[in-house]
Each structure stands twice: as structure tokens, then as C-alpha cells.
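hiii, so i know i said id send this last week but things got crazy w the move. better late than never?? heres the sequnce for the chain we talked about at the cafe, plus the structure i predicted for it. fair warning i was half asleep when i ran it
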Amino acid sequence: MDQRYRIAAEDWIEFEEEKHQVTGLTGALVRLRSNSGHHQTIMLSVLLTDPSFRALAVPPADADNGAAGLDPGGVLASLKDKQARDDALELEAHLYEATTGYRSGDPLDKESGEPRPQYHPDLLLSARIVAKAAELDLTERRIWQLLEGWQEKGLWGLVDRRKARLKNPLRNIDERVIAAIREQGAAERRDSSSSVSTRFRRRTQNRLDADYGPGVVELPKPDTFRRVVKLILHRSPSDPAYQRISDANQPDRTFGNVLAHRPGQVVMLDTTPLDVLAFDPAMNDTYNVELTVAIDVATRSILAWRLTPLGTKAIDIGLLLADIMTPEPMRPQWADALRYQMLRVPYERHLSVDERLAEAAARPVIYPETLLYDHGKPYKSDVVKRACRKWKIDLQDARKLKPTDKPQVERLFGTVREQLSMHIAGYKGFNVAHRGQHVAEQARWTLDEITEFFAEYVIAVYQNQHHRGLHLHGFPDLNVSPNEAYAMALGSAGYVDCPRDPNLYYELLPIADGGRAINSYGVELNYLIYNADVLYQLRRAKSPYDNGRWPIRYDPRNLLHAYFHNPSNNTWYTLRWTKALNDLQPFTDITLREARRLVELRAGDPKDKDFQEQIAKALWDLQNRADAPEMWTKTDRKRHTRDLHRGEAQAQDEARSTRAIPANVSPPRPVPEVVEPTVPSLHAVPDLPGEDDDFDPFAVQPAEVWNPHTSQEG
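okay and structure toks below
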């Protein structure tokens, strides 16, 4: 008698002493996947006539419908068919009653009338199974199968698999294809975006051909290939490149946490492009801005910040360290609620230690113990190392391209973008995909104005806003602000006075390599000659230093001046470039290198005695080109804006350092060329004699216009 079989996709059979699942039927061909993952295609007639063929009514216990690796309990919890889950729970109650006599399985939680006589615990288990089979209208063998599945898989073993199937969308895909897609996706994480169906598919096939031989492993059809790539890769090769690059920077292990228990224990430094274009009214152009911040990990306070044109220098980082330990001055337009005395700290005691806090804003002043910084070149400069060595500050660098080592400061940049940057005219987004069409036309604020906006945001908003990472001690559900966290930390850690050296600015400046000799014409630095009256007393004299040369410091943001320290009276002097004219604007070291390049292109020799005049003429030409509208180029405009801003920033830093000298200390006399504040003071303009308050512009008589034809006729 011929036996008939019904074979459908996802059915299980036994063939050649191994269990297989039917993955597809194509005409007379059957595709099989073994329980070990091996794929094969066989003719249906050959399969049915093979002596080892046998249909399986119940899937093998270790098969899980081809979804190996899935948690059955997790799949059960995520079932969309509520009826299938309720049926499984009802069946479980029956099995509890058959095995224990109680539907809950616990005699202490029995229902009324339990145990029923046919399920009394004193009866044999086989007798209770017979009674349960009769009650459910099932065979005894089926009840024993349910008990076995229930004991092995729990509640999942009682779910009707026809209503709840475990899904494995990759069960028909060759494991070698899956591995090749993952390897190729990892190789292209930092590449430009591409189409999945063209370049990525071609490269994946090339990888398979190289590993297993040409044509041995074929990729699925393009539509199937796209679906498989979407399932395997978190970021498709067609996704924006910045997203894949960001994911590639994540560490391949658990994120670490930087912990700090007191203010200043760990201070993070980082620089990022600000998502706002600054406007230069002199050039009528816009330019990019960089933001450098220092954040205290313990209190999440922003301790200092610097906004500079694109290209932060080492001197900016060095002075940022000084800003951390310097109170932020109050602005005239700020409310009294933003003063330092509103921090809820022992203000009078702090004022007795540091009188600068009298006119300071509500921002913590902290002496840092450890600086955690990035791998940027300005952070690893001698200026920063020298400053940290002077103040006994430890340096710790984060791993390269690992922003997760500085999560607090990276999250701060996102907060600044959401709360400030995107609300300023000229916001350009954090990448090209988020940039508007007329951003440059909307920019209207200068860099100094944006800096003031940022300062007001820090003092008035950020420092007083509750932070999700800061909690009240003993109350983890109550968040506090950075200022409140600082006030609480002072109670346990105390207040550490910060250094207040009036010569701090000059000591942070870089020193010319090897020192310089004082000649009759002055000192030479970067092929430029600097001089001052004080040098005539020391010309051709050996210094008290080991190499016999004099250390000359300079600010790379403004090379019009150099700075000399006279050890005899412990005073700093300003040296001026001998070829500088009064109407020359400040210029940076970048501009000087450009001028030198132009001179050398004209066959100029740095050792030539006329090289000074050539440098001055080249610099003059550069500035004339930036001053002539018909010659303006993008490079010239950037150079002019950069030099102008850095010159102003250098003057402000120098003036602040000079003002820090106590008023009761008078410098020794005579003091020629002593460093003075370079920021001019404001003067009131007196009223003109006879000027009336009620001025009528229409009463002004126009001046006579000279007509050459009239004069010739006369």
C-alpha cells in the first residue's frame, strides 16, 4: 500500500540519519536545511524514495523552527497573538493539576474544591494523566509529549507553533555570505557612502571569490541582498558617512566612566567647531568659529571657554587654563542675581581669600588637579605642559578618536547646540546634511558678540539648570544644578585658593628656541628685529642663564611685539618690531610664514641684510590686498579676520594680566617700555560750543558747490 506524504515549507523531515527542515519547493526540487546548518537541493522523487526518509510530526527539540539562538521565553513575551499565550497558560494549569493536583501547582494557593478526586496527589501520576487526557479529549501519549516539552522549554513548549512561529529571516542565507557582508561593512565604515546594489555588492562578491574561489559562493538576488544587508548591518553603506564614522569611533567594549568626587579632581578640555557662522563687518564676510571649553566632571560646571576663528593655537589652550582659575567678571547689563555671592557658598570667607570675587559672576573658580584632553596638537604643546608643570597639574590624554573617553564634554557640545547655537542667527548645523540654504546671509553677529552670548548663557542658564547627571546627596531622584553641586561639594572637599600671578600671561607665552643674543640693533626673532630702550643697557651682555642667551617670549597671535624679562628689576618689557608702522595691523605667525614664502619665491635670502625690508614690504602688500575690495579673495578675507581677532584677543589677555598687578606695588624707576594695557580707555565727548539740544536738521543751509564752468565764465 502506497503511503502519501504532504510536504510544505518549514516542515521537518528525517533524511540520511539527520533532521532537515524544508526551506523551499521549486517544481520537482526541494531545498533542505539540516539541523546543523548545511544546505542542499534534492529532487522530490529521490527524497521520497530514499529509505532513510521519514516525516516528523513534531519538530526536533533542538530545532526551534530554524531560529537557533533565540530565547524562547523572550519570543513568548513578545507574542502578538494574545489568544495563543492564553491557551498556553490554560494548558499549563491543566498540567499543574495533572502533576500536583492543584491548578496553581502550590497547595498553599489552592482553589475551592481542590484537589479534585481524580487528581488527588495520593493517586499515581499515570492515573492522573489518564484522567486529564479524558478531560481534554487528547490521547495519553499527547499528554506525555506536552509534559516532556513543558519540562524542557517551560511555557514555550505549550504554545501552538502554528500560531506563534519563531522567525529567522536569515535562515536561507549562506553563512559565508553573512560573514562576507559583515567583514565588508566593517572595511567600509569610514568610506564615502555608496549604493548597496552596486559598489558594496561588487566588493562583497570579490571578497567571496578571493576567499572561496571564483563562482563558488554566489550572492542572493539584488532585492534579497539589500534586505539581508539591512538586517545584518546597523549602518548601511548608503547611510550618511558621518553616521558610520561616528559608529566606528565607538569602543569595542563596555564604556568606562570617569568618576570625580570633588571639584577640580578631573577637568576635561576639548575643542569643537561651533555650529554658527560669525560675521566680519570689515570684510563683509562670514567665517567659521571654534569653541574650546573646560568642564569640571564632579560638578558639570563650565569653568572656562574660548571662541576663536577656525584654528585654535596652543597659546589659547594655555590661557584657557588661566581662565579656569580666574573669576569671570560681571557684565554691566547682567542682573545682580548672577553675581558670585549668589552661589550659596560662604561668600565673605571666600572674599577674604580672593578679593577678585567681589565683582565676579556666578561661576565656580576651581584649581584643577587633572586635565583630561584630546590628542589635538595645541593640547600637547610645550605651552600647555609648561603651564601644568608650573601649577602642579597632572595631564592625562584620552585615546585617539575615542570620544567615549570624554562623554561629559561631548554631551555638553550637544547641549550647547540645542540650547544656544541653533537659536543664533547664522546657525549652520553640525554637518552639510543639516545646513540651510542661506546661512551666510543670515549671519549677523560678530565673534565678540557671540562670545558674550555664550558667556551669558553659561552664567544665566547652564550653571543654574538642573542636570540629569547631578543628584542631591541621599536623594537620587532629585537633580541639582552645577552651581548647587559646587556649593554642596565645598562642604565636603573645601575651597582651594587659585594662584594669582600678575605675570601669568607672559609666563605662558612660548620662548624662542635656544634664546637670543642682545645685539646693538636689538634681538632677532623669526627673521624679524625687535628693539626697545631697555636693551641698550644689556647689549652684547651674557645672560645669567646657562647658555648665556636671553629668553625672549612672543605671542604667535600678534608678532608686532616680543617680550623680555629683566631679572635685575623683575619687570617685563615690550619689544617692538623695528619695521612696524603705526598703521600696521597685528599679524599672526601664519601671516608671517606667508610673507616669508612670498619673499623666498622672489629669490630672497633670509641671511640678507635687506631681508627685513623685504618682509615688511611683503607684509604691507598682503595687508593692502586685504584692504582693496577689488582684490579680496576668500583667503585674504580669512587672513584679515583671523589676524584682527587674534590681535584683539592678545591685547585683552595682556591688559588683563597687567591690571592684575596690585595697586600698592609701584614698579621700579626708571621703567622704559614697561608693558602697559593696550586696550584704549573711553573718553567722554564734550558738547560743542553753542550746540542746541533742539537740533533741526532741516534748518542747516547746504554748502555752496563749486562749478568749474561758472568760475571760467567769471
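btw The longest strand covers residues 267-280. thought thatd interest u
miss u guys!!
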